[in-house]
Amino acid sequence: MLDRAAPGHPISDRPIVIEAADSFDFGSVEYRRLFCGASASAFQHPDWLTAFYRNIAPAHGAEPLVITGRDSDGELQLVVPLVRRGDGAIEYAFLGVTDYACPIIATGVTFGAQTRQRFRDVLGHHADLRIGPVHHSHLHEWRQLLGSEPSALDFGAHAVRYGFPYAEWRRTNLGCRGAGSLDRKARRLAEAGGLKLELVGPDSVRQALVAARDFRAGRFPDDPMQTPHGLEFYIDVATNGARSGLARTYRLASKDGPVALVFGLVDGDCFRYILLACDYRAHARHSPGRVALDQVMAAWAAEGGKAFDFTIGDEPFKADFGCTRTTMHEFRP
């Protein structure tokens, strides 16, 4: 059941068919229409979820479980992308790569008791359900759908909003010392062989992300990029996302080759940074990662971007960019 609030009328449960399926076409016209009108994040974009179920879920032995809700005309109103693990547990389509778990809900739709009841009936009342990680901006939707309260996770998300003019905001945000230090390191990198930030086109994404995988080797525990399915997942999202506008891969290069690569998602006026890879063997003394992020932030602001999201994880360097921390949550109804 779903509820659509008519203007000036009280909300009440209306009969909507809620079903569970082991497959769903996230590239379909109906899903794209639903997504475009929903308040979901870039992690629910058709390109992201298509790549997730193609690459990540099978590699983890997780079966797709997609909940849909349709009105009496058969129009799609709700999608909840889930997976069923080998032990029978049901969780959001996360599996270590989806930073923000969010239901995809048609504009104007809200939930009542009948909706929650039917949702649990479809899943099975004894199902071990886990929904997370959930950003605070999506708590309302989950509370309505699940009828329960979340618990706080032990990590947060970090983001910063720009001020204008950007150069002045940067000095204030990073501090004169921080901004000056990054400027000096960028100059030294440039002196070592020129320096250019470029946007990688869809036909060059695979080569760029293979180089990123090699730069990251041995640096991060449980790095998805070091697995065949993880690498293919990011290549899938980055290639299709470069064409659709979802994803961007930036390359900071010198005359000798790539210095650093930054991959992330475009979400309205916000850039959601996901992956960073640097040639530390050649450039460690110049902090190439921080220089690359600084230049990508500047490039995004120059295009009219208003926010830069460093997403989940409490790495100390995020504070150096003036980020605000937001606690992440999990539902275990």
From TrEMBL:
Keywords: Acyltransferase, Transferase. One of its GO terms (molecular function) is acyltransferase activity. Pfam families: Acetyltransf_6 (PF13480). The keyword Transcription regulation does not apply. It comes from the Bacteria. Residues 181-318 form the BioF2-like acetyltransferase domain. It is an enzyme of class 2 (transferase). Its EC number is 2.3.1.-. This is GNAT family N-acetyltransferase. It comes from Mesorhizobium opportunistum.
